[in-house]
Amino acid sequence: MSTQVEAQPEPEEAGPEVKPEPKRRVTSLEVLCAVLVVALLAQGRLVDWLDVPAIQTGATIFVAVCVQALPFLVLGVLISGAIAAFVPASVLNRLLPKRESLAVPVAGMAGVALPTCECAAVPVARRLMQQGVPTSVALAFLLAAPAVNPVVLVATNVAFPNSPGMVAARLVGSLATAIVMGWLWARFGKAEWIIERALRRLPEPDGRSRWRLFFETSRADLVDAGGFLVLGGLTAAVLNVVIPRSWVDTLGEQIVVGVIVMALLAVVLALCSEADAFVAASISGMPLLPKLVFLVVGPAIDVKLFALQAGTFGRAFAIRFGPATLVVATACAVLSGLIFLGGA
User: Transmembrane region positions (predicted)?
Assistant: First the structure.
C-alpha cells in the first residue's frame, strides 16, 4: 500500500514591506507662525479693532492676571515634577499612623510639605494607592496638596494684600474639605468603584529615568496649567468688561447667590491652584466670602479634575466623588469664611 505525498506549493518570496507614510500633523509652532503672519498682514485693521476702551481695559486685566500668576505657576510645576520623579510614594506611607481615621488628617497636613498642583496630585494619589496606602488617605492628600501648600498660600497672600484673613480661611476651608472627604470615603466608599489598574503596583523608575520623568512631568504640567491660566485670565477680563458693574453689585448683595455662582464658576473655569487667587481677586465688586468659595472649590473639583479622576480611577468613582466634593468644599468654605472673614 503506497501513500501519495502531495507536493506543497513553495512559499512566495515576500517582497519588501511597504510602510505607510505617517500623516503629517500641524504643530502648534506652525499655527503660531500662521497667526503672526495674519496679524502682520492685517495690522492696520487690528489696530482699529483694538482701539476701543473696553478691549484695552480687558487686555490690561488679562496681562496683569497672567504676569502676576506665572511665577507661582512655574514654581509649582517644578516642585510637582520633582516630587513625581524623586520622592518615593512610600515615604508618606511610612509616616502615616496605622489607624485610618488618624492617617486621613495627617495626609491632609502632608499637603503643606508636599506641594503639587491638582493635575499632578491625581497621579501621586494613584501612586500612593499602588504603594498600599488606604484609599481614603490617598484621596485626602489628593484634595489637600493643591490647596494648602506654601506656594498657593503665598500666592493668595499676594493676590489679597488687604485681606490677611483670606489665607487662613483658605487653609482651614481646604484642609477641612480634604479631611471630611477622606473620612466620608473611609465610611461609605467601596473599592469596586475604583478601576483595578489604578491599584496595580508599578515599578519604581531607575536612576537614569528620574530626570527624564522630571522634565516630562514639568513640561506637560506647565503646558496644561498655562493653558488653563490663559483661559482664566481671559475669562476674568471678559467678566470685568462685558458684565455691567450694576449686575456685579447686585450679585454681591445676594451673598447666597454669589456663593453658588462662584462655586459653579470654579468648576467650569478649571484654573490651576497656583493662579486662581489672582483671577478671584480681579473680579471686582464681589464680596470676600464668594471669592473664598471659588478658591476652596476650584482645587478640589472642576471639569478638568473630573476628567482626570474619571480616566485615572474610573467613571464610577468620579460620578460619586465629584459631586460630593463640590458640596463639602462649598460648605467648608462658607464655615471657614464666617470664622475668619466675618461673612464678608
Answer: 59-86, 106-125, 137-160, 166-186, 222-243, 255-272, 279-301, 321-341
- Torsion region of 270: left, alpha or beta (phi above 0 gives left; psi -120 to 50 gives alpha): left
Tens of pLDDT along 226-259? 777 777 777 777 776 776 766 666 666 688 988 9
Q: What is this structure's pTM?
A: 0.73
One-letter amino acid for residue 81 of the chain? G
In angstroms, the CA 4 to CA 122 distance is: 68
Q: How many CB atoms lie within 10 A of CB 36?
A: 10
195-231, pLDDT tens digit by residue? 887 776 655 555 557 788 788 877 877 776 677 777 7
Q: How far apart are CA 180 and CA 63, in angstroms?
A: 37
Q: How far apart are CA 280 and CA 206, in angstroms?
A: 41
